[in-house]
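Shipment paperwork, digital attachment
Item: protein structure file
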Amino acid sequence: MKLLIKNGIVVDETSEEKKDLLIEEGKIAAIEDNLQTEASNTKVLDATGMYVLPGFVDMHTHLRIPGQEKKEDVQTGTLAALKGGFTTITCMPNTSPPIDTKIALRYLNSEIERKALCNVLPTAALTKGLEGKEIVDMVELKQEGAIAFSDDGVPTMNAGVMRNAMLYSKVCDALIMLHCEDKEISKDGDINDGKMVLKAGLKGIPSEAEEVMLARNIMLAKSTGARIHISHVSTKNSVKLIEFAKNEGVNITAEVTPHHLTLTEDIVSPLNPNTKVYPPLRTEEDIEALIYGLKEGIIDAIATDHAPHTQEEKSLTYHEAPFGISGIEIAFSVINEFLINRGIFSLSEVVKFLSTNPAKILSIENGIAKGRPANLTIISPEKFTVDTSRFASKGKNSPFDRAELSGIVEYTIINGDIKYRRT
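Attachment content:
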């Protein structure tokens, strides 16, 4: 069966035009005005009043498998991704046990093949056991399908190990994704080291914890020529450091999350651990710098850092509760409500951050063009109230619960097949 999408506003990183799309054999066959085709073998989808976008690509998702299936699993995590309009996600390797061997990666790939509802690209750990001491066999793991390497959530504190890892990554042209945190500075902190520390009675995490490690990693990447990607940037000085790195010719890209673009430390409450995330929510000044970073091409992508946890874990005291927000299902809606509707970004710009640039960084084919895979997200501008109890994800831990947002994913299409339809 062919699929004809009629009357939608087709959006890419440069334009927004009312067009029809014809999909044949999983690929985009035509993009024209008033397309017609034989009704006998064509399914027609009326997208009147809706926006047709390239499928979103998330560079930072936690599926929690193996070992943490109480938080999430392949099926629930990928259904959540589909509900959020994501056709491809990159899953992180800091699991129990971590994805640090060929056997572990083969197991993960087998689960993905059997249960994933969207495209899943697995990352492998950078060091064995996430211990920051011994580098994994990057060549073997890349051959087994690892899209990148990361000790996400556990920074590699030893500069010598990191330098050697970067040198090794050059051998197999591997991308290293970096969680920038100096544990000696962050220590047992809970929230941004700002005005809420005394009000909330919680321990602070200075912005330098991110910036010092970022500066180190930039200098190592500059000297080794490694290809690095900076995860969840959160401070204004980090933006300046990444700008410096790009001007110096460092092979660096970076991402920012929807929550770091829209929420500040002001919402932190010791009674609500759903506001506990790493890096912590920062200040309005930091948000302005992050937006500037996206506008100027310093920061390349928006990634969710979808980090589901159980209700029991997030019901602990603020200090005891784990870091993380479950956010993949409402990522676009948050961006739409806080940034597009307020005129900060256009929809085309957001397509670049959520789709075009992540695909380029990961070297995968995406976008709306004739002959490309028909990976599409169709969105209506409808308003709604967030109800985390209705999340497909096992993780209901979101500070946006009961928030009024707009922009709902109506359809998510992968290779021409409708994989998700809002009911």
